[in-house]
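Memo to structure team: turn this sequence into structure tokens by end of day. - J.P.
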Amino acid sequence: MKHRAEKRRLLLDPAATEAAGFALARRLRAGDLLLLEGPLGAGKTTLVRGLVAGLGGDPDEVSSPTFVLLSHYEVAYGDIRRFHHADLYRVRGHPGAPADEIGLSEVMEDPGGVTAVEWPAGWAWHAGRGRVICIELQFAGECRQLTVEWGGA
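Reply from structure team:
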């Protein structure tokens, strides 16, 4: 799989993080898998709010799925109809088995869906129907630094 790293982008505040998610959403297609990396509080869920908005969904419905592990949002953009948002923070150190138990493997095969996974480290991922897009948010002083690496397809 070919990868193309995008230039890093500095995000000044949460509004800029949501705007970056909105812009990124416009480049997605059904079947894409987004792997969201970064420390607690770096803005992963804020970015997801922008992604959902950019796909025509309601960003106010988005919350961190830490305690439910997997959330679903109805969207309407191109061939994308659903946005699946998983947070594996609570199951770190136990890769593999819980993915099937929480339905993550199933939603990754959704022909009209895009799946975003927070805390994906240690899990085995495949492109499935779409691309694997690696997104990293890091602290940069008072700001955040966003790096996006697109998997080829």
